[in-house]
Amino acid sequence: MKRFLAWADHRTGVKKLTEEALYENVPGGSRWRYVWGSTLTFALAVQFITGIFLWMGYSPSAQTAWESVFYIQNEMFGGWLLRGIHHFTAQLMTVLLVLHLMQVVVDGAYKAPREVNFWFGLILLILTLALSLTGYLLPWDQKGFWATKVSTNILGITPVVGPLLQKLVIGGTDYGHLTLTRFFALHAGVLPASIVLLVIGHIYLFRRHGITPKQPLRKWDEPFWPEQVLKDAVACLAVLAAVLFLILRPRLFAAGAPMGAELGAPADPSEAFSAARPEWYFLFLFQFLKYFPGQTEIVGALIIPSLLMGVVFLMPFLGQWKLGHRFNVGFLFVMLAGAGMLTYLAKAQDRNDPDYQAAVREASVSAERAQFLASTKGVPSSGALTLLKNDPFTQGPRLFSKNCASCHRYGGTDGMGGIVKDPQSASDLKGFASKEWIAGLLDANRISTTNYFGGTKFADSKMAKFVKKEFSSLTPEKRAQLEKVIAALAAEGTDIPSGGATNQVDTFAEGRRLIASPEMRCTECHQFHKTDEEANGPDLTGWGSHEWIVGMISDPTHARFYGKRSDRMPAFAKQQILDAREIGLLAEWLRSPTPDPRFPAN
Amino acid sequence: MSEEVKPNPPAPERRSFLKEAAIMAIGGVATLVPLGAGIAVLLDPLRRNVNGGSKIRVTSLDALPKDGTPRKFPILASRTDAWNKYPDAPVGAVYLRRTPDGKIQALNVVCPHAGCFVDFRENTKNFFCPCHNSSFAVDGKIDDPKSPSPRAMDELQVEVKGSDVWVRFENFQTGRADKIPA
Question: Which of A40, A82, A178, A328 is deepest in the core (most CB within 10 A)?
Fold first, then answer.
C-alpha cells in the first residue's frame, strides 16, 4: 500500500494535494459557523449521486415521464427513497444556500479580495434555483406542468426577446416532448456541468484567500483536519437526517401514507388545475406577483427581483463605504424578511381559501387514483393520462359537477365534495337506483322533498300524489309487498337477478310480478317488460341500468322517459353537450354502488 | 495575490484518533445512504421474473406445409415493458414444421450463438444465421462443424389441441452449450 501511494504520489503529487486540502489553516480555530459551504458541497454530491441513478430509470417524453417516475417511485426497489433523497435534498439546498449567503454577508466575506468569489457564489445560487425550476417539471405531473407553464410565461414577458426565449425553452408553442427533453438536458447536463466548473472555481478562490475568520478570534489557529472536518461532517449528517425525516414524515403521522416525494396526477393540458403553486421557496415571488395589476406584471416578475439581485451583486462595492457593511447586512435581512413575509401571506391566503383547499383535495385524490390505476392495470402506450380519462370515478364527479350539479346534488354536494351555491332543484343522485334510494322515492314523506321530486315540476305530479296516498300508512302485508317491489326494481338496474342466491331470485320474481300486477298499479302509467303505447311515465324495464341511465341523460324527452312532460333537463346527447363516452362514464359512476373500494366518493 | 500573510499551521497536535474515526464513520454513513438507495434501484431489474414460459396458441395445423418445410410464426403475448402493458405484442417468433413421423416441431428463431434471428433457406433447405453464418439442419441441429453456434437451435414444447398448435414459448441464454432459460 505504502509503495503504491509513493508510486502514485510521484506521478500525480496527490499527497501534497491532499495535505494542502486537509491542513489548510483555520484562523481562530474551527467553528460551527463555517460549515455551510461544506454542507452545500455535500448536498451537491448527494444530488449528483441520486440524480445519476434516477437518470437510469427516467424517460423524458410526454407519455413516459410521469410513467417512468411512477415506476421508480412505486415499483422499483428503494425507488421512493432515492427519489425522496433527491427531492428533499434539493429543498434543503435552497435553505443552505440562504444560510451560506447570510454567513458570508454577516462575516463580511464578500469584501476585497474576495469579490470575485462572492459573485461566483451568487451565480451558483441562481444556477441552483434553475436546477430546482427545471427539476420541478420533470415528473410531468399536474403540479410541475402548471407551475412551469407559469414560470415560462413570465419568461415570455421579458421585453423584446421574451417570446422568442420562451419558445426556445419550451421547444415550440406547446408544452410537450421537446419541453421535457430540453428541461432534462438543462437539468442533468448543462446546469450541473456549469455548477461543477463554478464550484471548482469557488473552492479554488476560497482556498486562495482563506477563510474569513469571525472576529475576534476565540482560539488558536487550527488546521482544517480534523477539527473543522469533524464539524462539517456532523453538519452534513444533520442535513441527511433532516432529508430522511422529511421523506419518512408522512408515515410518522399516518400508517400506510405514501413516503418520499409527492407525485401528482399526470399532466393534463386540458384540465384546469387550481391547485397549481410553485415550490415553497418560490412562493414569495408567486405572492409578489399578485400585487401587480395587468400590464405591470413585468415590474414584479423581472424588474424588482433583478434590481434586488443587482444590489446583492454590488455588495462588495457598497461595503467599501463607511456604513456599507451595515447597509449590506440590513439589506439582506430586510429582503429575506420580506420574502418570508410574502411566503407567509401566500400560505395564509391558501389556508383560508376553500376553493384552493378543495382543489388540493381533488388533486390528491386524482394523484392517488392515477397511481392506483397504473399499478393495477398497467399503463397503455398512450400514457397514464388515458387511464384517468377513461376512469368513471375520475371523470364521473367532474362531469357531474360541470353538467348536473346546477340542479341535482350528489350526497348534498356537487359530486366532488364542493358546496353548490344555487338552490337544489332536482333529485340527489347519490346511490341512484339502489334499494335505499328507491325506498325514499316511494316514501310518502320523502317523495316531494328536494332530494327527490321537490324541486321539480313533478313535486305535485300524479306519481307524487299516488305515493302520498297509497304508501302513507301501510298494512304489514302491503309493506312486505312494497319491499319486494323495491328489491325487484333495484335489481332491474343490475345483473343480480341471474346470478343471485335462489331465495333472492324468488324475491325478484315475486317483485317483478307485483310491479306488473294491477294491485300495485305501477303499469297504469309505466311500461314494464311489455310494450304499452299509453304509458307516459318512464319505462321501468331495466330502470336504473347503465343503458337506461345513458338513454335518460342522452334524451329525457324520449317517449321511453318523460316525453313531452320532461322538466328542464337538457338532452345531453341530442343537444351535443356531452359525447357518448362522457355520458357512459357519468352513467357508470352514478350506477356504481360503492364507487371504489379505495376511493369512496366524498 | 493575497496580501494577507497566512500563519503557518501550528505543529500538528497529537491528532485524536477518535475524531478521525468519527469523521470516517459519519462520512461513510452520509455517502452510503444516497449511494445505497441508488444501487438498490440500479439492481431492481435483478428482482424481476423472467417473462415467458407460457403456453401460447400460435396457429392452426392447416397453416403448416404438408411437405415438412418450416414456416415462421410470430408469437403474440401480453408483454410488460417496465411501466407499460401491451395486451397483444409480438414477443418473438418460432419456426413450426411437420416432422416425418407426423409430429410438430417448434424451434425458436433466435440463434443460440449471439441472438440474431435465423432464416430458413429454401434452396439449401437449412437454417442460416445472417450474423455469423451459423447453419442448422431443418431439425435445428448444427449441420456444419464450422458453425459458430455452441448448440443446436432451441426446441420448444408443442401441444396440438384439436386443430390448434400451442407452443410453450421461452427464450434461452445465448453463447453457451447448455439450454438455460433467459
Answer: A82
Query: End-to-end alpha-carbon separation of chain A, Å?
Result: 68
In this structure, the answer to whether residues B100 and B134 fall within a common structural domain is yes
B91 and B24, same domain (yes or no): no
For chain A, say whether B49 makes contact (Cβ under 8 Å).
no
Cβ partners under 8 Å of residue A156, min gap 6 = A162, A163, A165, A166
Per-residue burial over B130-169, b if 16 or more Cβ lie within 10 Å, else e, is: eeeebbbebbbebbeeebbbebbbbebebeeeeeebbbeb
Same domain? For A242 and A172 the reply is yes
C-alpha cell at A100: 451560506
CA-wise closest residue to A129 among A193, A79, A187, A211? A187
**Nearest residue, CB atoms, B83 vs list A89, A237, A379:** A379
Establish if B5 belongs to a structural domain.
no
Last residue of a domain, which of A242, A270, A298? A270
**A114 grid coordinates:** 474576495
Relative to beta strand B84-98, strand B104-108 is antiparallel
Show residues of chain A in contact with B31, CB under 8 Å: 45, 49
**Shared domain check, A300 and A226:** no
Question: Cell 346470478, residue?
Answer: A499
| Overall number of domains in chain B | 2
For B136, the 3-state DSSP assignment is strand
Say yes or no: ipTM exceeds 0.90. no
Other CB atoms within 10 A of residue A23 CB: 15
Cβ pair A23:B12 closer than 8 A: yes
**Tens digits of per-residue pLDDT, A40-62?**
999 999 999 999 999 999 999 99
Peptide bond into A593 cis (omega under 30): no
For residues A505 and A488, what is the distance between their CA atoms, to the nearest angstrom? 9
- Over residues A8-18, the mean pLDDT reads 87
pLDDT tens per residue, range A581-602: 999 999 999 987 655 544 444 3
- Residue A432: C-alpha distances to residues A122, A285, A408, A437, A490 (Å): 62, 47, 12, 6, 9
Task: Give the B window 4-43 contacts with A, CB below 8 Å.
Answer: 4, 6-10, 12, 15-16, 19-20, 22-23, 26-27, 29-31, 33-43
**CA A154, CA A148: separation in Å to the nearest integer?**
10
Domain interval for residue A336:
277-352
* CATH, residue A239: 1.20.810.10
Indicate whether A49 and A191 sit together in one domain: yes
- Choose the closest CB to A221 out of B10, B19, B23: B10
In which residue are the cell numbers 376553493 written?
Answer: A355
* Nearest CB partner across the interface for B34, out of A49, A221, A234: A49
Residue B71, φ and ψ in degrees, nearest 5? -130, 140
Is the pLDDT confidence value at A350 over 50?
Answer: yes
